[in-house]
Amino acid sequence: MRHFTYAALTGWMWLLFSLTTTSLTAQDRDTLLIDFGSDLSASPWNNVTDPAAGSVGQLLNKLGNLTTYGLTVTDPFNNVNFAGTQEPAASTGIPPTASGDSFFGNVVAFGGQEQPTGAVELTGLRPEKEYTLTIFASRAATDNRQAAYVLVGATEETLYLDAADNTDRLVTATLRPTADSTITVTASPGPDNDNPSGFYYLGALTVSYDAEDAPPPPPPPPAGEDVADTVLVDFGGSSLTAAPWNNITDPEEGAIADLLNSSGFQSGYGIRIFDPFNGFNTAGTVNPDPGLGFPASATGDSFFGSVTEFSGKIEPTGGVELTGLLPEVTYTVELFASRTASDNRETQYVVEGATSATVYLDAASNTADTATVSLMADAAGTIRVTASTGPNNTNGAGFYYLGVLRLTYPNQAPAGGTSLTLLSPNGGEVWQVGKQPTIRWSSRNLAQVVLDYSTDAGRSWTLIDTVPGASGTYGWTVPDQPTDSALVRIQSGELRDTSDGFFTISSDTTSCRIVVLGSSTAEGTGASTPDSAWVNRYARSLEGDTRFEVVNLGRGGYTTYHILPTGTSIPANVNVTPDVTRNVTQALSLDPLAIIVNMPSNDAANNYPVADQLRNFATIVEAAEEAGVVVYVATTQPRNFTNTTQVDLQREVRDSILRIYGSRSIDFWTGVAAENGYIIDSLDSGDGVHLNDIGHRLLFERVVGMQLDTLSCGDVLNPVHDRILPLSGVTVYPNPSNGEDVQLEVVGMPGGQVNVQFIDVLGRVRYHHVETTTGGTYRLRIPHAALRRGTSAKEPLFCVVSVRSGSTISRRVVRVL
Asked: From CA 811, how far away is CA 802, in angstroms rounded?
């Protein structure tokens, strides 16, 4: 990196901190971004995941600041749809995580429910102001899925949007709220909806308003001896709270060496878990009292312990230690925890420094109460907080909690100097126009940073945005300025860093999806944060090339039966129906480059025989191969079964997958399993079923080793932006080829560019030919030697014939033995 580091901070730089962070395109407007569904969008998007009772007490604005506005589901929807577009138009400003799922309802019973209407309510709005609401929804479908959205504020507006195959349509209305500061959005089937169940959807909502409606910016850094500074710590792993919050996600060994203070500067203080907790609770309040100043992402989860065994553990106490404190300074420690409950969940906190104090807090359905202690650190500069079951706790397991720690103290200069380093893009990336890759950087003690880009090797620069330095990331919508000489620059005052090498801004619209089918491990269970889960690690590893996209259809509790092709006959003794939103049929509808199947142990847990499991795997793989899509099958994973028969099932299926799928199998057993078939202790998340962060990283490394990003990735295989029609009249002979030259004949082929590929079972191209024809009968002879089958001569090849005529692609895949 070309960067500069200064040894000392010369001031608080409040002038820089107070610079506007609003984009140049909307300096007079602010926006709330709301994603409905269980696939989480990155901050500053607000995620509403519960279709029946979801709420966010304080919504973030687009700058990542808490507002006084809230949102609540007031009329339940049925559930979450996962079949929305993964390719939203750049003009919508909506990421795939928000467009790909949505809440839905229906007028005919579905999943045991009828929800003819569903509604959300915005609260805390200002009656004298106007708010512009924009709605998006998407569902892969060929019928009409129109929804009617009735917006009720001081006036009433009705909007209509057909979600069927929607990638770019938005509907918008501007209105003032009611006198009680609310706007309600009620969704139902629209008059043109011809779906038999009347399915309707709500996927994303943006609310824009005059910038002065936003809360005031963060206060300037403290000045003077009597002004307090603050460090904020969020304990839990289900959701991370944006900087300047500090996140501790590991309940056993979590630590941060240098905590950020609330102004985004380094405090020089550290924190670590010195006494392990059991795990983390995700049932805290998402509607904290606004007076606390805590976001729902911090109050909604917490660490917990118990005096009786839970998930194989007993942790009667759990503790955190603050380090690097100044012994002569008085610190105030404020603690918060919440758990939805009707019994008493009182927690006792013993806070020890130069002196000690004991305080109590009942976490049961807590939204507003905290426990507070003021004291000095001990001579070593430490303060310890030990949590345990309080004397009034009536819970049978004695559950206790720690969710938030707020440390306040007289202000101090930031610890250390300033630094700024651009991490990506750093040269060699391929970023497509309209995609939204992440610019990443590391900084120290910088309130704000300015991002620019260049398309002419640095001769001229265009502003991207001005953002908080502590955030470390920025989702950039790539401009329509194709070049192979692009650079990004980041600067703050005299500090500056630029991409080490050029990256490419490409107008190519190719999309190469890798779809993951699986159960809870694929979904991310066991990892301390979503970022640590193997699928998300893998997706991030491909960020350098936006042509590659990872779509995760994993869902906890699923077996091989859940992901079978739609319409597959299920044995009478198996009470499972393939999930049409998460099975191989859905995966193939996304036109993937490859599919990864990760089914660790649920089949064995249900005592499904080896033969049944292998038959299911074969059915899934055959369905994909018929569509010309390669499948990689992960082996079973260890699980702490007390029944040795189930362990034997796991081992036999593991060996069979390795034997049957060979180079297309992924070994998720070796190095993960102990001799007895249990999870190695150091990789166990604590429940004997799921892997921890280290284990997820190991799985990620195994998948990276398959080198799926080296497979052929072109619009012949992934023409996602064009209409794909079946190509008839295709014959490949002799088949089996028996070592002879292969003849390809297409009768009645349309005129245009013909593209012929022979692809092996690993997805690698063995033969490639392109030419332009006028149509009619097309013939091509492929010499046997040109197919380069080598030692894999007995494995099938797939002949992919595609013809592009204008914006239409006709395609046929033929299996060749």
From this structure: 4
**Which amino acid appears at position 30 of this protein?**
D
> Residue 520 in contact with residue 605, Cβ under 8 Å?
no
Quick check: 234 and 404 in contact, CB under 8 A? yes
Residue count of the chain, please give it: 817
Distance CA 131, CA 69 (A): 12
In the numeric block, which tokens belong to residue 2?
A: 């070309």
Strand partners, 803: 754, 810
Task: Identify the H or E element spanning 297.
Answer: helix 296-299
Q: What tens digit of pLDDT does each residue of 337-371 get?
A: 999 999 999 999 999 999 999 999 999 999 999 99
Q: Which residues contact 226 (CB under 8 A, 6 or more apart)?
A: 410
Taking only Cα atoms into account, the Rg of the chain, rounded to an integer number of angstroms, comes to 28
Burial class (CB in 10 A: 0-12, 13-18, 19+), 572: exposed
Burial class (CB in 10 A: 0-12, 13-18, 19+), 396: exposed
Q: How confident is the model at residue 765, as a pLDDT?
A: 66
Q: What is the pLDDT of residue 724?
A: 52
- pLDDT at site 217: 41
- CA–CA dist 228, 385 (Å, integer): 21
Cα distance between residue 492 and residue 303, in whole Å: 37
Tokens of 105: 């309802």
Which residue has tokens 């006084």? 68
| Neighbour order of strands in the sheet with 404-410 | 246-248, 228-235, 404-410, 330-336, 371-376
Residues 6+ away with beta carbon under 8 Å from 126 = 177, 181, 213
Do β-strands 330-336 and 279-281 pair in parallel, antiparallel, or remain unpaired? unpaired
The C-alpha atoms of residue 234 and residue 223 are separated, in whole angstroms, by 26
pLDDT band for position 224 (cuts 50, 70, 90): very low
Q: How far is residue 220's CA from residue 224's CA, in Å, rounded to a whole number?
A: 12
Contact 801, 744 (CB under 8 A): yes
DSSP string, 37-74: SSSPPPTTSEEE--TTT-EESS-BBTTS-B-S-EEEEE
Question: Which residues make Cβ contacts (< 8 Å) with residue 129, sequence separation at least 6?
Answer: 176, 177, 209, 210, 213
Instruction: Burial-class residue 796 by CB neighbours within 10 Å (0-12, 13-18, 19+).
Output: middle
179 CB burial (10 A radius; 0-12, 13-18, 19+)? exposed
Q: In what order do the strands lie in the sheet with 473-475?
A: 419-424, 438-444, 473-475
